[in-house]
Amino acid sequence: MENVTQKSDVELVIITGMSGAGKTVAMQSFEDLGFYCIDNLPPELLVTFLDLMMKSENKMRRIAAVMDTRGGDLFDSLIGALDDMIQMDGVSTKLLFLEADDETLVRRYKESRRSHPLAEGGLPLSGIRKERALLSELRGRARSIYNTSELKPRALREKIMSTFSSKDDTAFTLNFISFGFKHGMPIDADVVFDVRFLPNPFYIDELKPLTGLDKDVSEYVLKWNDTQMLIEKLTDLFKFLIPQYKNEGKSQVVIAFGCTGGQHRSVTLAEFFGSRFKEEYKTLITHRDLDKRKG
């Protein structure tokens, strides 16, 4: 019973289902797909939020909202709110229901040492059975029902990515960063390469005031045999590593090149590899320390 309008201004996905079935992983996956995510907002407030947003000039085009029994009595109003959202013009509403068998849910609660929200201090199984009964009508309305009993978080993520990604989605991003070691290591880098062994343009008078963004500097850095050998070996390494990171489910990989000041050699290498892989992946280039030169 979902809105199947072909051309809608806003795509809304309601994520619901059994506690412990993977809603946190699901919300993180939608965030990586570019959705604006809302966790456990009362249903009536979500309707109000959508109404205000549709009247705003700056609309959020893709929204994912987790709705579950943590809301207590507020959850009872979800069915009525869902009907209201389905009737909203310009909103395409989809319902994703996550479930798992009782044995799997009990095991997950025991492993996490958390209590079930509906167990009221009792055994997890009593809360699970109560929740399953409460969710039966919502389950019947959902077109997408995922049983996560045999799904690892990575597999659930891949399933969501496959089902809800659009043609414009580029969930995986390569970030190439240049930096200067004298300004400190980048704390968000996955891989760091020290290129201070390469010939330094800093000691060439006409190149010293320039940066790796300038043609004369990049040509100087790239002309050396050591640089070409490094590029050859790193290209082979990246061709192996990057697909492994992507298959592991990472949404981005940050590859950093460091030289002394972050002006010449690291900038040249970040620019080179950013250009080298931009046809295969969404690629971003950041020169962290380019504006830190004295004077």
TrEMBL record:
Domain of life, per lineage: Bacteria
Domain annotation RapZ-like N-terminal: ranges: 10-167
Residues covered by the RapZ C-terminal domain: 173-290
**Which InterPro entries does this one have?**
P-loop_NTPase, RapZ-like, RapZ-like_N, RapZ_C
Record keyword Nucleotide-binding present? yes
Matching HAMAP family: RapZ_like
Protein name according to UniProt: RNase adapter RapZ
What organism is the protein native to? Sporosarcina quadrami
